[in-house]
Amino acid sequence: MESYLAIDLGVAKLLIGEIDRNGTVLAQKRYPATFLSQRDGVELIKRSIDDYIKTIGWKGSDFRPSAFGVGLTGRVNPREGMWLQIDPERTETIPVAAELTRHLGFQGYIDNDVKAATRAVRHYELSSEDFVYINVGATIAAGMVVGGQLLRGSHFNAGEVGHNSVGVNIDVMCSCGRRDCIEQIAAGVGFDKCARFLSHKYNSSLQIPPEEVKVDVQEIFRLAQAGDELCEVLVENAAGSLANMVMNMVRITDPDTVVLGGGIVADGFMHGRIVEKLNPTTMRFVRNGVMLTRLDPELIGLIGAGVVAMNIHENRK
């Protein structure tokens, strides 16, 4: 049986696993992902791969996987296998694909983590040539497929939609230097920042933890359903922001489908609230509507990394 090694390195977690051609996760293991630089991240991957092979081993092959794929946070040049940047403060060009190929002894390929997830959606869920996948998790980013092509941009920075202002003005500063970016309202980091920023204005039972601990978004959802004033405002602002972002992207890329994924939207609580705020005229050509991905939100990045390996390996045979 043919299988692929998949590696998903996000902001706060590293997931390593093995998938087969049907997208079935044959085995997986999660590692803490605390790293300060790209070099730290690459060394973490190497150590974790060694541990994975020792403790889990290969499940889909008696020999080894056919190839490996890696999804990385930040800017990635998949054609040259280069990891370019985590954020503007952490920029270093590292030939990750070549380094890991030498380390493992077989060929591999890399991509941005959300673009890898977009590949998974296209490979296993949609036959569409024109769709948008929006990942709403700790941060917000998107993969945009137009005319069958996954948009990347001149500097591999296309899809950083978390840094769009979407008309919900609460005067929260973003790390990019702009105010009211949607990431600071509707992502995990945004719920945390807005809860702290607005807590003195509204009555609430929400416990605000110390700065080094993020506010629990699921607790915000639970309290919002119970009528908590602050949490209702946080949810309303996030839903309005996400609806506006969806409509902006519809106007820009003209998709037939919008797919939402990521931990913030995965349980469906936000989905209906977003959809009810969408303008019918703006959305009239989105024939398949705004849907939640059916892929496991905890594994979509891992599956996407496997698809990166599968797609490129097959094309180069």
Task: Please describe what this structure looks like.
With 317 residues, this protein is of the alpha/beta class. Helices cover 34% and strands 22% of the residues. The chain contains 9 helices and 13 strands. The strands form 3 sheets. Strands 3-2-1-4-8 form a 5-stranded mixed sheet, with helices on both faces. The radius of gyration is 20 Å and the shape is globular.
Write the layout of secondary structure elements.
Blueprint: E1 3-9, E2 13-20, E3 25-32, H1 38-55, E4 67-72, E5 75-77, E6 82-87, E7 90-94, H2 96-104, E8 108-112, H3 113-124, E9 131-136, E10 140-146, E11 149-150, H4 183-186, H5 188-198, H6 217-225, H7 229-253, E12 257-261, H8 271-275, E13 290-292, H9 300-315
Parallel strand pairs: 1-4, 4-8, 9-12, 12-13
Antiparallel strand pairs: 1-2, 2-3, 5-6, 6-7, 9-10, 10-11
Helix pairs in contact: 3-9, 5-7, 6-7
Rg, Cα atoms, Å? 20 Å
Overall pLDDT: 93
Helical proportion, percent range: 25-40%
Number of helices in the DSSP assignment = 9
- Given the C-alpha coordinates, what overall shape results? globular
Distance between the termini: 17 Å
Structural class: alpha/beta
Q: Output the helix-strand order.
A: EEEHEEEEHEHEEEHHHHEHEH
Strand content: 15-25%
Task: Tell me the total number of β-strands.
Answer: 13
Q: How are strands sequenced across the largest beta sheet? A: 3-2-1-4-8
Spans of at least 5 consecutive residues with low confidence: none
Largest sheet, described in full?
5 strands, mixed
